[in-house]
Design brief:
Layout lengths: L6 H11 L4 E2 L2 H4 L18 E3 L4 H14 L3 E4 L16 E4 L6 E5 L4 E4 L5 H10 L2 E2 L11 H6 L7 H4 L6 E7 L5 E5 L11 H5 L8 E8 L1 E2 L3 E9 L2 H13 L6 E6 H11 L10 E9 L2 H17 L6 E3 L2 H12 L1 H5 L3 E4 L2 E2 L5 H15 L5 E4 L4 E7 L1 E4 L2 E4 L9 H14 L24 H14 L13
Parallel strand pairs: 2-4, 3-4
Antiparallel strand pairs: 1-2, 5-6, 6-10, 7-11, 8-9, 8-10, 12-14, 12-15, 13-14, 13-18, 16-19, 17-19, 18-19, 20-21
Helix pairs in contact: 1-3, 8-10, 13-14
Length: about 475
């Protein structure tokens, strides 16, 4: 179906981006064969890697690939978890790592202009130094801005501040045939035709390559505080969530975390969680414009949680305490990563979380596989980790492949089916990529998938851009 990258194409690529921005050494290209998904089965080494530095170079490379019928896979920080930047058919990997400028922070409009290779860490630091904030701040800080937009990344702050989609005001995009389009701008409103801007956000690099983005910023919160509330069981913890929201308490983040993974992460970091009691914790992160407001909201949270069975309220009200709490929470995946097969990110109505987690436990027992689960309590995004280890006496014990390999697809299928039955979808923030593709029909009906395929064929008639992702 696709042509190979032969010597003639390599010479053309070298002319377009310069020899220093072309990689053809198989050993060096191995780094571009995968993302953060754990299993090596899906890895594919490309035939060439290009690292453009300007939009014009991206356009020229895409035009060449389209004319020659060569598959091309955009790549950012490769922090994805579902194979979204794996070059399934070989071809060319288009790495945006060298398009990494923060072009502008516009204080008057409270917007930033960024290139796709700028990391979240670099962006957040620059925004903070400018006295502003980028509220979503999703996930891994080595992720790049283009990839965050391409997957519509979420994160724990979605309950109050929304996801990436809510902050993208404009995009410069190169289409598969090399045309450059500019969508939106430094605008708060637009009802001018179909929203191609929002079509590109979350399209996983299958419709176009983002080469610049305009991002909405907000004033920085004056005060933040983290509360940790231990509960004897998950149900009581989750039942607190709608009660908090119904009482007009809107946390910046609201997470449920079970005890097992906290203990593992404490040992991994050699740091201590604020409390040892309880089986499930609510982590409530608040922001406020004054100390009085912060104290009032903290008291209201404490009253609700104690009313629903919380055993105490631990307050991280100094920068050091907050840093410890948030670091332990953010490093859970890193602590269990070596034994994690996959992280599911099923999204369901938040009131369904206790029932879904009960189903997770049933599936765990049925297949004798450890499935630690935590997630965003207020937005319904549940992260179940499919593990190749057991948890016993506070330790992870690795399992041989024969004990888990045949179970993985069945576990995925049963949990996805349960999510759908509860009105949910198979991905809230990670995307579909390769890994979730076989399960897409569980969530989307045939009409929706055919509409998506029609859009893909219209924009990318030769199917050269990130082929094999989302659907076939």
């Amino acid at each position: 179906m696709y042509k190979k990258v032969d010597q003639r194409i390599r010479w053309r690529l070298e002319e377009l981006v310069g020899p220093e921005n072309l990689v053809c050494d198989p050993e060096k290209m191995a780094d571009y064969s995968h993302d953060e998904f754990s299993l090596h089965d899906i890895r594919r080494t490309p035939e060439a890697v290009v690292k453009p530095q300007r939009t014009e170079e991206v356009a020229a490379v895409l035009k060449l690939a389209d004319e020659e019928g060569i598959p091309i896979t955009p790549r950012g920080g490769a922090t994805g978890l579902c194979g979204g930047c794996v070059p399934v058919f070989g071809g060319i990997v288009l790495s945006l790592e060298r398009m990494n400028r923060l072009v502008e922070i516009d204080h008057e409009n409270q917007m930033a202009v960024v290139e796709p290779g700028l990391t979240l860490r670099e962006f957040a630091q620059a925004v903070e130094e400018a006295g502003l904030s980028f509220p979503p701040h999703p996930g891994e800080e080595s992720a790049m801005m283009g990839g965050l937009i391409a997957t519509n990344a979420g994160g724990s702050r979605a309950v109050k501040y929304g996801v990436i989609r809510n902050y993208v005001r404009g995009l410069e995009v190169v289409l598969p045939r090399g045309q450059v389009i500019r969508l939106g701008g430094k605008l708060m409103k637009s009802s001018t035709g179909y929203s191609l801007l929002h079509l590109m956000i979350g399209s996983e690099g299958t419709l176009g390559v983002i080469t610049q983005a305009i991002i909405q910023l907000l004033p920085a919160a004056r005060f933040t505080r983290s509360l940790v509330i231990p509960f004897g069981d998950l149900e009581s913890a989750i039942e607190s969530v709608p009660l908090l929201l119904n009482r007009k308490i809107m946390p910046m983040a609201l997470e449920f975390i079970e005890k097992e993974v906290i203990r593992i992460t404490e040992d991994y970091l050699d740091k201590r969680w604020p409390c040892a009691v309880g089986e499930t914790y609510l982590l409530v992160v608040l922001d406020a414009s004054s100390e009085d407001e912060m104290d009032r909201v903290s008291q209201a949270v404490a009253e609700v949680c104690l009313e629903k069975g919380g055993s105490d309220v631990f307050i991280a009200d100094t920068p050091k305490k907050q840093e410890t709490v948030l670091e332990i929470r953010s490093k859970i995946y890193e602590a269990i990563k070596s034994y994690t097969i996959e992280i599911l990110d099923i999204s369901i109505p938040r009131v369904e979380i206790p029932k879904h987690v009960r189903r997770v436990r049933e599936v765990s027992e049925k297949y004798d596989i450890w499935l630690p689960t935590f997630g965003h309590a207020a937005d319904g995004n549940v992260h179940t980790h499919i593990m190749r280890a057991r948890y016993s006496a506070g330790k992870m014990i690795p399992l041989p492949e024969k004990e888990w390999r045949a179970k993985v697809d069945r576990v995925r299928g049963e949990l996805y089916a349960d999510g759908k039955a509860r009105g949910g979808v198979i991905s809230g923030e990670h995307g579909i990529g390769i890994i979730k593709k076989p399960f897409l029909s569980l969530t989307l009906d045939e009409v929706q998938v055919e509409l998506m395929k029609g859009i893909k064929r219209l924009v990318d008639p030769h199917l050269i851009l990130n082929p094999g992702k989302i659907f076939d």
